[in-house]
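Retro notes - structure team

What went well: the batch runner handled both jobs without manual restarts.
What didn't: labels got mixed up in the shared folder, which is why I'm recording both outputs here explicitly, each with its sequence directly above its tokens.

Job 1
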Amino acid sequence: MAKKGSRILVGLTCEVCKSQNYVVEKNKLNTQVALKLKKYCRGCKKHTTHKEKKKLD
């Protein structure tokens, strides 16, 4: 049975090419602002800023 808690799945989307490259888990109680991380984008072929775009079920 799945855990019931405060962690949710969110997708990280590249701000340059708008492609979703990563899915990460986030604690919605401790981190209430949107995530913004510098990650590698396969579309741009360089490190770009990725931000939280949508919540996944």
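Job 2
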Amino acid sequence: MCIGVPMQVIEAGSGTALCRARDGDHHVDTRLLGEVEAGEWLMVFLGAARERMSEEAARQSADALEALDKAMRGETDIDHLFSDLIGREPQLPEHLREQHLRHGQSLAASDGTGGRS
């Protein structure tokens, strides 16, 4: 399995950048993104930057990785690391919502209740 790690560009070069992650500094291949600038946040997989991201998205990803690390050590106090998810209903991605609604309508029609209990 490959897990992406958010990293912040410290120094940009030609096709590479020195980036900082929670475990230290790394040289990252940036050729898939083109030119990057110091201060930008990147999602890095296996030493290669795959996408630019906002600072907020980078923080949420880093928090999720910290939660995973804690869970693997048997710790259970991780809810604070998912502050963007606490207290809200889960949402399907936009591209799945219509499919889900169509599927729900076809199930209601096939059980004869038309969605009524």
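One thing worth noting from job 2: The radius of gyration is 20 Å.
We'll revisit the folder naming next retro.
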